[in-house]
């Protein structure tokens, strides 16, 4: 019996990935014949795509600030050159054999809220130009409810459990869990698939995350901080 979804940022592992209905992968890590093999086995492949951060070389769309955790440069989402760059990445991923796309770095409501409307415009352009079979958005709660009209599913990353630093994991404090529950109740009102991605290093924390996700209608995958575990 297959499992709903996996997030894996390594390469290979086709046999293990074949055990899932959907898999989110780094777009550059899988050649066409491997994507085709997964497709033949009934796996829907989603390529990773960042919409508000850029890990590439210096570019005119970069802001001076960078993500302190991962190092990518924040971008001006409405810069036409960034829009063209992202749409080209999306189109290339679909042409390379991916079925759909996983849209990351959508949480701008606390940092650059003025870019939220531009994010919706960018997602609409990706849908129209790349024509993915499936779009999965990571969080993006500041874009609700309009986001639900543009994507097929929403992921609640770190819904119940989180990585504290590079080597330790823990459940969220009770006040954060309550806040997340309120958002989850909003998501349940939308016509989208719901998923949770949590981080854990013990069976106890994994069971807690999976059990809590089920309570809110989410299909849950649990991994480590860098998504190297299937």
UniProtKB/TrEMBL annotation:
Highest taxon, organism lineage: Bacteria
Coiled coil: none
Protein name, UniProt field: Glycoside-hydrolase family GH114 TIM-barrel domain-containing protein
């Amino acid at each position: 019996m297959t499992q709903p979804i996996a997030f894996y940022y390594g390469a290979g592992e086709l046999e293990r990935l074949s055990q899932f209905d959907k898999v989110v992968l780094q777009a550059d890590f899988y050649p066409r014949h491997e994507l085709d093999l997964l497709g033949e086995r009934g796996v829907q492949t989603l390529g990773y795509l960042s919409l508000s951060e850029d890990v590439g070389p210096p570019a005119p769309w970069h802001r001076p600030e960078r993500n302190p955790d991962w190092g990518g440069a924040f971008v001006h989402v409405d810069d036409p050159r960034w829009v063209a760059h992202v749409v080209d990445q999306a189109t290339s991923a679909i042409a390379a054999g991916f079925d759909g796309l996983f849209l990351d770095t959508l949480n701008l409501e606390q940092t650059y809220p003025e870019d939220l409307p531009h994010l919706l415009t960018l997602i609409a352009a990706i849908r129209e130009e790349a024509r993915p079979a499936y779009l999965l958005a990571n969080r993006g709660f500041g874009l609700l409810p309009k986001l639900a009209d543009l994507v097929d599913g929403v992921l609640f990353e770190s819904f119940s459990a989180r990585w504290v630093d590079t080597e330790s994991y823990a459940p969220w404090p009770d006040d954060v869990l309550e806040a997340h529950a309120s958002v989850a109740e909003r998501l349940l009102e939308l016509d989208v698939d719901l998923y949770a991605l949590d981080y854990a290093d013990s069976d106890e924390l994994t069971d807690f995350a999976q059990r809590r996700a089920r309570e809110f209608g989410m299909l849950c995958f649990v991994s480590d901080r860098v998504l190297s575990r299937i």
